[in-house]
Write a structure and sequence with these properties.
globular, four-stranded antiparallel β-sheet
């Protein structure tokens, strides 16, 4: 049986606000399995945002593990991300999980992968998933040439452009923000 996957997640840190959004499409092979999956969550009492791409069951497992780490390290997002990445890379069970995550606090965005990477984008924009490069390109252009837009507007427009171009991304968007 094929795994359910494919999506686009985009995070933008701009003018003291961070916004994180994702489309709602889950794909099984070349078929849309569900069109309204919620891939963005608020964690740690609304202080951290998390979005995931990849195999849905794997992503939920990693999201739960990240939240455990976040609570275990007193809300220190970067430390929790590093510890999750270590476990993800070395644990026999976790190592097989196929997903990626973007986590965001009010001052930073991080991308966490199963290869042990914890990346902090230098421009305050992070994107993952099948339409990630489309969304990233759009958000970079918006941040450079339309800086009057809010972080939320940049995420919404970046995801919309990705949905127009990527067959694994739809227009059912879920956005969260922290100021």
């Amino acid at each position: 049986m094929e795994k359910i996957h494919a999506t686009t997640v985009l995070g933008v840190l701009h003018n003291g606000t961070v916004a994180l959004g994702a489309d709602g499409q889950a794909t099984m092979g070349n078929t849309v399995a569900k069109s309204n999956v919620r891939k963005v969550r608020t964690l740690h009492g609304g202080k951290v945002l998390a979005g995931f791409a990849g195999s849905t069951a794997d992503a939920f497992t990693l999201l739960e593990k990240f939240e455990e780490k976040l609570n275990g390290y007193g809300g220190n997002m970067k430390r929790a991300a590093i510890e999750l990445a270590k476990d993800w890379r070395t644990d026999r069970y976790l190592r097989k999980l196929e997903a990626m995550m973007i986590v965001a606090g009010k001052d930073e965005i991080l991308v966490i992968s199963g290869t042990g990477d914890v990346l902090e984008p230098e421009n305050g924009i992070a994107a993952i998933g099948s339409g990630g490069n489309f969304a990233l390109s759009a958000a970079l252009a918006l941040k450079k040439h339309a800086s009057q837009l809010s972080a939320e507007e940049m995420v919404r427009e970046g995801l919309s452009i990705a949905a127009d171009l990527c067959i694994y991304t739809n227009h059912n968007l879920v956005l969260e923000k922290l100021s």
